[in-house]
């Protein structure tokens, strides 16, 4: 269970206050909201990249509110994928394991496994420069999953992709979430994407997060509230 | 390009042409045959290289910290915590920034005098003495300390060159997107690992540029060396002081020939820098 309680975050005139929500273990949570509503800010706070002014965050019963990002066990895929420009794809994917002290054999095995699942085996020896948008997002996804995080945070990972690539990646995300048994928090603007992937749905509106549906809600109801 | 720009380019070319016309090959060969001049060339090459390496050693971490502490993400983090802390932090950053500009804006002679005065203090004299003892224990008894010795040449060059190197490295890191470093933190990297494994490899062109700039600046350094290291032949004489000494003794052809050696070295370094950093741009990724 991922639990955010009474989270308070101030940034100049912008404020997120009293943000509370819970994501059940191994579920696929969708967070939607208008542009500028603070979705990315909230996601970065959960990842530990922004200091919050108040509230608490738990993952699987462990409080991580003041834990450094490196120790939170959260995989993060930013909107622009933010690949490391000077590293080949296989090293990017192994990065999280390398800094955590995994053996070379473990790293190699995991990279192969993820590359196969995400269909990026062909590009393992390439640099990020020249990769397509879809390839970049798959690499970023593999990199974030490499060290088996407890939570995977995705910041609009499909927004800059064409329809065909988006549709492929949507299927892939669903498959990966199930095969890796990882809890996902996914920001998107796309209602269809949200309905197709999400098992729980939240909306960030006027500085508040509210739950707008879960797996057992009918698609129509969820779409209406999203 | 404006008329004044063309005039300025013409002035640079005309100066170089005049130098080459004034000195002939026999002047140059007789200068190079002089053991003292060969010593000054070697000392220039070695001292400039050491000063440039030391400058990089200071410039890379300082430039990175100044760039990242002024970044939007850091400003946001501090702004969230306390506006007072944010203001104090900004003030400290501007103070350090201004401090780093001092060696650039100070007249070179003032840098030399300041170094000389610094080594007249008790702490300076102590360091001077210990340095002499260190060199003696290493078997270089000829170097008796810092002031008026070879270490003074290197320190004088380093004092000015490092400021230029820090500026270059700061600009380099400012143009490198910090988001991949932040992602590296979520992957389990420490701040040092994010710096050394993600940011630093992207900055290699900037590092080459900072090194060559520091090297070239050291090569042209004269004022601080004159005051702090002196112009003792076969001891602290570097190429810039060779030009000065020849000019002082009325040997204008010798001075121009030594100047041409300096010009040639500077041009070689500039061409090498351009070649090494070819393809660098101000966009994300690898930066000059």
What is this structure, in a nutshell?
The complex is a heterodimer of chains A (about 230) and B (about 290). With about 230 residues, chain A is α/β, with parallel strands linked by helices.
Task: Give a written overview of the molecule.
- The complex is a heterodimer of chains A (226) and B (288).
- In chain A, helix 2 runs parallel beside helix 4 (133-145).
- Chain A has helices at 39-47, 89-99, 104-117, 133-145, 163-180, 191-197, 219-225, and strands at residues 2-11, 14-23, 28-33, 54-59, 62-63, 74-77, 151-155, 183-187, 200-205, 208-214.
- Chain A is an alpha/beta fold.
- In chain A, strands 6-7-8-3-9-10 form a 6-stranded mixed β-sheet, sandwiched between helices. A 4-stranded antiparallel β-sheet of chain A has the order 2-1-4-5, covered by helices on one side.
- Helix content of chain A is 35%, strand content 27%.
- Chain B has 288 residues and is mostly helical.
- Chain B contains 14 helices and no strands.
- Chain B has helices spanning 3-22, 25-33, 35-69, 72-81, 83-105, 108-118, 122-137, 150-174, 179-186, 191-202, 204-220, 223-228, 239-248, 252-276.
- In chain B, helix 3 (35-69) runs parallel beside helix 8 (150-174), helix 4 (72-81) crosses helix 5 and helix 8 runs antiparallel to helix 11.
- The model of chain B is unreliable at 281-288 (pLDDT under 50).
- Chain A binds chain B through residues 9-12, 47-53, 68-72, 74-76, 78, 80, 82-87, 95-96, 99-100, 129, 143-144, 146-147, and chain B through 73, 76-77, 79-81, 177, 179-180, 182-190, 193, 197-198, 201-202, 284-286.
